Amino acid sequence: MLFLQFTILSFVAVTATAVVLTRDPAKQAIGISFYGLVMALMFFIFQAPDVALSQIVIGAVALPLMILLALTKIRRHEEEQRERKEKKAA
Questions:
Q1: How many folded domains does the chain comprise?
Q2: What pTM, to 2 d.p., does this model score?
């Protein structure tokens, strides 16, 4: 059991580092979803299934969804501002 715990902790560290080092926000959202699933697996291995279920809902589904929705809104807003500048220039 100790080997499994050490392995999952190492995997958590690797996935967290990968999320931090990713520069594209859309790829970060996908990475953070995967990180949430790994964290849920870690909680399950450490015998906290209730926390694991909460982590799946929040860390693997809700948080990445909110990030992707925010990115979509930001990109739409940037496109609208670019169109307004083009209309003023014309």
A1: 1
A2: 0.82
